[in-house]
Amino acid sequence: xxxxxxxxxxxxxxxxxxxxxxxxxxxxxxxxxxxxxxxxxxxxxxxxxxxxxxxxxxxxxxxxxxxxxxxxxxxxxxxxxxxxxxxxxxxxxxxxxxxxxxxxxxxxxxxxxxxxxxxxxxxxxxxxxxxxxxxxxxxxxxxxxxxx
Length: 148
Hints:
The chain is an alpha+beta fold. The protein is 33% helix and 18% strand. It has five helices and six strands, in the order ααβααβββββα.
């Protein structure tokens, strides 16, 4: 089977973060990159039923630690995962962007292209990171005419 450009990109990504190139890791990266919204472990389990729960948990944990994915919570408090931008690395996530929770379809979207204002905290506060959430209807649900 021929490798696609994405497969090679994912292999390079794993090499960059000193992770073994295993079929399950490559499949998780491929699945996550094919989605336009963050995804939860249970959602991944339902479509990747040949990867057991413990292995999937370990993959997600390793990816988060290495700065490949970041965790964002939905309206129910469930952890969802999205691919990081290239400037994240081990122990240093830089995913300071708006996370949009759709109140209808329950998807969580990373809105990376918005220009967010600088956050000026009072003296003495030293943030490691921040998370900004918005809730409402995503474009797909808005088109359906969902009434809030």
